[in-house]
UniProtKB/TrEMBL annotation:
Keywords: Signal. It comes from the Bacteria. The keyword Signal applies. This is SoxXA-binding protein. The keyword Signal applies. It comes from Thiorhodococcus fuscus. The lineage of its organism: Bacteria, Pseudomonadati, Pseudomonadota, Gammaproteobacteria, Chromatiales. Residues 1-27 form the signal peptide.
Amino acid sequence: MKNRHRSIAAIIAVLSLGIAPMTSAWATHRTEAEQAIAEAKTAHAKAAEADVASLQTQTLIEQAEKLMPSRQFTKAVEIANKAKMQDTFAYEKASGAVTTDVAADRKAKQAIDAAEKARKQAASVGGEWRDTAQMIQDAKDLEQSGRFEEATELAVKAQHQGTLGYEQAMAEKDADFPSYMRRRQ
């Protein structure tokens, strides 16, 4: 009986090692977040020198800094990197270091506009899905970072969600409780 308990304990120990990594490589530390914020500030300063810095990226940097006291380092890194990418792209575009694919940019903007239209249509009948607005915002951020193909792909998914949300709400608008269910009064 003792051997059986030991073998069960050994199996549990082995399984737990697979679930929880032994290193902290997955965790974001304060220093990583501080470095990401510093890099975002540097990119913002360069963009400001070229007169292409945006208020949005400054706001993103401030959001990342406000997360530091609450130890939300991973989220701070994510936000700071988003600001850095946008300012870096704006600077490179202004300095001529990168040329914008006008067709891809236009396609991304059109996809984002279509997604926003579909989201608003779904919202008008109470059918907006939870993640659609965030997907559209993420697509806008990708577009501002020069990642046009990814922005288009995400916007198309958001448009699809908007369309499905509208269709679902319209299909369920006259739905009622089945006859075998009673409403509590």
